[in-house]
């Protein structure tokens, strides 16, 4: 499993170097002609675009997302903005509706839409939005979560790719984070997500024209959504589900690393854990549901199917979590208690070191945090492995959906007040604390009887498991 992960990282590392050195820019690889303003034609040469902003009790960020969408540089008569509000708090619903009315009074075509229930969560809201009669006049739909802030020229840079290339279903933008420097937890997330966008999405786009839709900051061709069967709520990764189904229909995707949208990272451990459960459980569950459909598909090339099943799903969504936890948190410590079993140094040190260095390319400014990032990722691999198994087995929390808490641009003092206060017992994560005790025992045994000096790593990993176990990662700046 370690070799599988190593070869995957090495392959992507080689491809991304080739892309940076020899690949043409997207504007040169695809037919691309900017849509120009024309005095005689007016706005008739601009396609009609639908903007969807799904929300759920987004008190802190609703103004930012609505304002960013209304500020897009696109003819107002060719832009329809849907605010899909599933809020359960009447006060929040009133505030969001008032904000929509304020922008509507300025001439913006913005529609406030609510549902009677939250069936299907985000997928259900997006699906319901596309059913409206006025949507039939829209060719494309851009989706932005409530904390996302596209730049004014976002549509002018993305839409021409879809207009000039009818085989493209999706243009995905890169995420940037407004609160990356808030605390150590957000710095760790930035490192992982930057690698995802800088390498994984870029490689998938350049080599196979396929990658997983990130659920936001992307523009879809509505015809592709309809042909793929529309939004489905059978898993908690409705975005990835739609992307895979559209790909199996022969549609292609384009990732634009230079096209960026600002967003917010979870700044509390509780919010981060819920997010990671959804992001780990959902893909595993989708893999279970779609693997045979992918195998039997006749519309895509054999090597693309291999890439989707092996690389995209199996290695990145399942193996990556399990090997990190099983080997570095279970097998390696146990070899200390069983001296007859020895882990080869290439597996225990060299391969992890290379994988770590390859992961650091996305965020060079945080390279000094690499060692702690390794320790933190090892701890989170326990949580992700558990979520992955739940998804594969369709067990208890497989369809759990908790909206990620957002804090907006408040001052630090205001944030401190808004952060929910938990009882001490609610902060405890007993599984992580149990592994902290296990690693501490192994470290003590190695310190007394061992010969490999693993106790240095084990004691540091014990401290990290303990910090997470007591729920204090988000407080470390």
List the helices and strands and how they pair.
Elements: H1 2-22, H2 26-29, E1 49-55, H3 62-70, E2 79-85, H4 90-104, E3 110-114, H5 121-130, E4 140-143, E5 149-150, H6 154-164, E6 168-177, H7 184-208, E7 218-221, H8 222-227, H9 238-248, E8 252-263, H10 269-296, H11 302-337, H12 345-359, H13 370-393, H14 412-418, H15 424-427, H16 430-449, H17 455-469
Parallel strand pairs: 1-2, 1-4, 2-3, 6-8
Antiparallel strand pairs: 4-7, 5-8, 6-7
Task: Report what the structure shows.
By secondary structure, the protein is an alpha/beta fold. It is built from 17 helices and eight strands. The chain has helices at residues 2-22, 26-29, 62-70, 90-104, 121-130, 154-164, 184-208, 222-227, 238-248, 269-296, 302-337, 345-359, 370-393, 412-418, 424-427, 430-449, 455-469, and strands at 49-55, 79-85, 110-114, 140-143, 149-150, 168-177, 218-221, 252-263. The chain has an eight-stranded mixed sheet, with helices on both faces. Strand 2 (79-85), helix 4 and strand 3 form a beta-alpha-beta unit. Helix 1 (2-22) packs across helix 11 (302-337). The longest helix has 36 residues, at 302-337. The two termini are 34 Å apart. Residues 410-420 have low confidence and may be disordered.
């Amino acid at each position: 499993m370690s070799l599988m992960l190593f070869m995957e990282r090495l392959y992507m590392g080689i491809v991304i170097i080739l892309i940076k050195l020899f690949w043409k820019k997207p504007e040169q690889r695809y037919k691309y002609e900017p849509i120009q303003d024309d005095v005689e034609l007016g706005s008739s040469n601009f396609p009609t675009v639908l903007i969807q902003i799904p929300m759920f009790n987004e008190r802190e960020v609703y103004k930012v997302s609505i304002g960013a969408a209304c500020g897009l540089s696109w003819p107002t008569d060719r832009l329809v903005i849907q605010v899909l509000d599933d809020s359960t708090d009447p006060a929040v619903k009133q505030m969001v509706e008032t904000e929509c009315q304020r922008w509507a009074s300025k001439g913006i075509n913005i529609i406030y839409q609510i549902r009677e229930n939250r069936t299907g969560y985000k997928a259900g809201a997006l699906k319901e939005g596309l059913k409206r009669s006025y949507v039939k006049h829209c060719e494309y739909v851009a989706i932005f979560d409530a904390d996302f802030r596209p730049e004014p020229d976002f549509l002018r840079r993305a839409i021409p790719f879809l207009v000039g290339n009818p085989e493209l279903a999706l243009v995905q933008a890169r995420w940037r984070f407004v609160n990356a420097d808030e605390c150590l937890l957000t710095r760790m997330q930035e490192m992982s997500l930057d690698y995802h966008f800088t390498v994984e999405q870029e490689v998938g786009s350049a080599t196979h024209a396929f990658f997983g839709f990130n659920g936001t900051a992307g523009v879809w061709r509505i015809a592709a959504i309809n042909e793929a069967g529309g939004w489905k709520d059978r898993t908690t990764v409705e975005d990835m589900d739609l992307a895979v189904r559209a790909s199996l229909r022969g549609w292609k995707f384009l990732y634009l690393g230079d096209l960026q949208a600002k967003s917010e990272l979870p700044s509390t451990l509780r919010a981060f854990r819920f997010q990671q459960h959804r992001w780990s459980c959902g893909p595993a569950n989708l893999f279970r549901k779609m693997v045979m459909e992918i195998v039997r598909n006749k519309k895509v090339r054999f090597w693309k199917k291999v890439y989707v099943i092996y690389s995209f799903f199996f290695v990145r969504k399942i193996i990556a979590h399990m090997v990190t936890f099983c080997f570095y948190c279970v097998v390696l410590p146990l070899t200390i208690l069983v001296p007859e079993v020895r882990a080869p140094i290439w597996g225990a040190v060299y391969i992890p070191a290379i994988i770590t260095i390859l992961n650091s390319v996305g965020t060079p400014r945080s390279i000094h945090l690499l060692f702690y990032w390794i320790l933190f990722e090892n701890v989170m691999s326990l949580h992700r492995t558990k979520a992955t198994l739940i998804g594969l087995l369709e067990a208890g929390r497989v369809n759990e959906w908790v909206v990620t808490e957002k804090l907006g641009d408040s001052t630090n003092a205001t944030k401190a007040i808004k952060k929910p206060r938990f009882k001490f017992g609610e902060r405890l994560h007993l599984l992580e604390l149990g592994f902290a005790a296990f690693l501490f025992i192994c470290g003590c045994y190695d310190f007394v009887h061992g010969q490999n000096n693993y106790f240095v790593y084990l004691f540091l990993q014990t401290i990290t498991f303990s910090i997470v176990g007591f729920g204090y990662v988000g407080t470390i700046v």
